[in-house]
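Incident review: delayed structure delivery

Summary: a single-chain prediction request sat in the queue longer than the usual turnaround. Root cause was a stuck worker, restarted by the on-call engineer. No data loss occurred. The affected request and its eventual output are reproduced below so the record is complete for anyone auditing the incident later.

Affected input:
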Amino acid sequence: MIVMQPVLEIYAPDGFDLWPVAEIKSFGFLPLSGELSPAEVGTAMMRIASCNDIDPDGDRPPLPAASRDSFLHGLLTSDNLFAAGGLQVTDNSTTPSWSLPWPAPPQDARPA
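Output delivered after worker restart:
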């Protein structure tokens, strides 16, 4: 059976201490579902906030001076949020089963 699941591209949260996050590999994909632990939800929120931690333009207010406020600025002021990730396609009908996120990462970043 082929299963498709949304995923977020995740990296190790070195030094992140604004809220609890899950222990993860240095690079990977976090499958999103209603079964995430509180720490995994924190990891997803961290990644969404970091993807949107960009300099404001247009009608958005300027970045606050405090680093914590600055990190959350894009998450709280953007109309359209962005998150790196895609769909993970898994084929359980083959042996062994295979899985590949889409859009696919560069060839050298794929797990062996």
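Verification: Residues 38-51 form the longest helix (14 residues).
Action items: add queue-age alerting; document worker restart procedure.
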